[in-house]
Structures are given as C-alpha cells and as structure tokens.
Amino acid sequence: MTAENSPAINPNLISRIKGIILQPKLEWPVIAAESASVKGLFTGYAMILAAIGPVCSLIGSALFGFPMGVLAAIITTVVGYVLALVAVYIVGIIIDALAPSFGSEKNMVQSMKLAVYSMTPAWVAGVLNLVPLIAGLAFIAALYGVYVMYLGFGPVKNTPEDKKLPYTVVTILIAIVLQVIAAMIVGLAMAPFIIAAAVAG
Questions:
Q1: Is 78 helix (H, G, I), strand (E, B) or coil?
Q2: What is the distance between the alpha carbons of residues 60 and 123, in angstroms, rounded to a whole number?
Q3: Which residue from 131, 145, 129, 121 is spatially nearest to 54, judged by alpha carbons?
C-alpha cells in the first residue's frame, strides 16, 4: 500500500482496540509476547486514545455554547489530556514497583503494557463526552477496564492466580487516588475562569 492511499487510521491500532475490548483473554497473551518500548506504547497508542475524551469534551462544550468560556474549555482540554498520560505512566510505575510483593515479574515495559492497554475501554468511551448529559456513562467502561486489567496480570506479569485479585485491587485504589488528585489539579486550573464567568454573569 502506497503512501498516497494508506489508511488515515492505522489498522493495527484498530485491531488492538477491538481485541482488548472484545476479546481481552485472547489479546493479552499476544500483547505479552510482543516486543515493545515505553516510548512506543505512548506515542503509538496512549497519546492517540487519551485524546478522545478531552477532544470530545471540547467539542461537546462548543455544541452547548462553552458554559465556562472558550479559554477555560481549551485549558481544561489540554490539562486533562496531559494529566491522563501522566496518570497512566505513574500507574505503570506502581504496577512494576508492586510486582515482587505479588509474586510477579518486575519488568517496566510489561507493566506499562498493562497500564496503557487496560485504559482502552475508558479512553474509547471518552467519545460520550460529546454529550455532557451522558458522559457519566463512561464510568461503566472504566469498570470494564478494571476487569480487563485483572485478566492481563497473568499473561503480562506472570502473576500467580491467587495474587491477581489483590494486585488488581491495590493498583486500582492507587489509580483512584491519582484520578482524584488529577481532578483537583484540573479544578484549580479552571477556578479563575469559573469565577470570572460567574462575575460576568
């Protein structure tokens, strides 16, 4: 296939998204055996999918008249996107740091695979942000992502069966704390614009 008629979206990316969402039990062993790098996982996957939610939120805000102002919406989009990537990177580090405690393989690339690909359902569900009233449904996708992560610990981290659940729970609890911190940072970034909009109103 020539550059002139190459697809706009990498078919391998689409295949991976479909695999991790629809057949995670089959996809994780494939992922575990793949050669990868932390940089490649982010530039070729995370940076693309993590943009879905923030961009759709921006579009949704535009469709509903930017209730907090255009500048606030843009800042929220950028900050949210960056924090999403930082959070998943930190989760990968945490997964790797906890590995010995749960009888698992300590390998940063494998840990990042687990952190990045487990976010797929939540990132894809970010498209719901186009309609703010239903954006909350993305929470269901995030719960499914937890299950996807649970399934990945065995193939990707060689985690013993009896350690998979506690390993998953501890990882998710830490991830939740990170999300709360990220939300607070976004809130602080938006606060001046919210106040300005309220005063103008």
A1: helix
A2: 16
A3: 129
